[in-house]
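thought: fold this chain, then report.
action: predict
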Amino acid sequence: MDLKSLIRDIPDFPKPGIVFRDITTLLRNPEGLRYTIDFLAQKCIELEISVDCIVGMESRGFIFGAPLAYKLGSGFIPVRKKGKLPAAVHRIDYQLEYGTDCLEVHQDALHPGSRVLIVDDLIATGGTASATATLVQKIGCELVGFGFIIELRDLQGRKYLPDVPIISLVEY
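observation:
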């Protein structure tokens, strides 16, 4: 299946000169969505990535991470923006091109030694994925890889990530 054909390009969003890769057109396609999850799972199996938990980054990482966790027989853990989780959290502040941001995960969600795969819809500059990896590793988990639907290769985000397998299904 040609996943790229199911992803809509929106020029000049959110600002002039940016081409936004819109996955809502992929999500509305039942065969495309099923293929995406199955393909991610297949790649994990081929790379012999065994996981205890899938960590999905807010918010589109939830869309792909939860069904992937189901498919792989693992748990799913959401990593959220500041103030979205109700119980005690681990947190990490990190730099963005335009300022800072914060990610949080429940303190009882991950346990030292857990094998974790981080999932999101897209890797661009790698800032959020890198921060999530740091958070997971500070908790004492073993980061076993990353899974992305889309990779914007020109932005070279993967060079900021730890040396673990990185799966990307579509490259621009």
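thought: worth noting. The longest strand covers residues 142-151.
final: tokens above.
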